Amino acid sequence: MKKIISFILGTVVALNLSISVANAAAKEVRVAFFLEWPTPNQEDKVKKMFDKALGVPVKWTNFSNGGAMTDAMLAGDIDISYSQGLVPFINAVKSKAPLKLVDVAMEYGMGGTTCVTSKASGITSANGSELEGKKVAVPLGTMAEYVFDESMKVVGADKSKMTVIQMDPEEGAAALVSGDVSMACLFGGNSIKAALTVGTRLLTVQAARDAGIKGIDITSVTDKFMKENPGMLRTFIEVTHEANARYAAGKSDMNVIAKDAEMKLGDMKETLGGFVFLNAADTKKSMESGGTLDGFLKGMGTPNGAVDTSFLPL
Prior knowledge:
Blueprint: H1 2-24, E1 29-33, H2 41-46, H3 49-54, E2 58-62, H4 66-74, E3 80-85, H5 86-94, E4 99-108, E5 113-118, E6 135-138, H6 143-155, E7 163-166, H7 169-178, E8 183-187, H8 189-195, E9 199-201, H9 205-210, E10 215-222, H10 223-228, H11 230-248, H12 254-261, H13 265-272, E11 275-276, H14 280-287, H15 292-299
Helix pairs in contact: 7-8, 12-13
């Protein structure tokens, strides 16, 4: 009799657990991403491979900056932010936002994020201090702001003596073209290309690399989605890493990626070529103590517990 009762109780508990999991499973997954920021998994996005793997519709929404991604996550409108800049994520968790960093989307040099000075200003890295007293456009709270800060250190300019205007990349490029600002710090292939029609990079890609300026974008998730849908989160990251491996093998459909990124094929290839997509093992090393990402996080005063490596497809 005891065995029968025990079996019945066990069955009830298991049934309740399965019902709880079923109720928690999302009916759709809402993902934030950037345009002008091509990534291999956009092929899977277009071909609905994420929808197939997760078993539910995946709704992708493009944002102008990582801070807006954070706001949407906190508002309950986005579950996963793919390729969110590290700076806006750090700013969010410093404010105790219930978010977790679960993957490194990519590492990149300053090809995709840079500061461009207008040719009319006559300002280059050789006389960068002349930016003092000038107007500069910067998308604050993004990796472009980090690049701005680090670039000013390299050229010996005091940013506190500049008029820094908050502008998203597209706006900053337009302001540089119109002559309203002397420098614009930007990310995204199309915006940088527009800025370069009237300007030059304050630091070349190589000069920025030599100065140790590197960008890292990450995949972040709300604590709520992570706890309620761990399998879906793991699958999302797995599909993304499979896309990265396909790209590394030269098997990505570049035309599909370019179209989805709203970029010309040549421009897209140039931007994508500046990104480094780590495999799962190297990602874990970067995220753990002593790794590249860990160094950034500690250097920027990120609270403990902001990173979770358990969803990586190892």
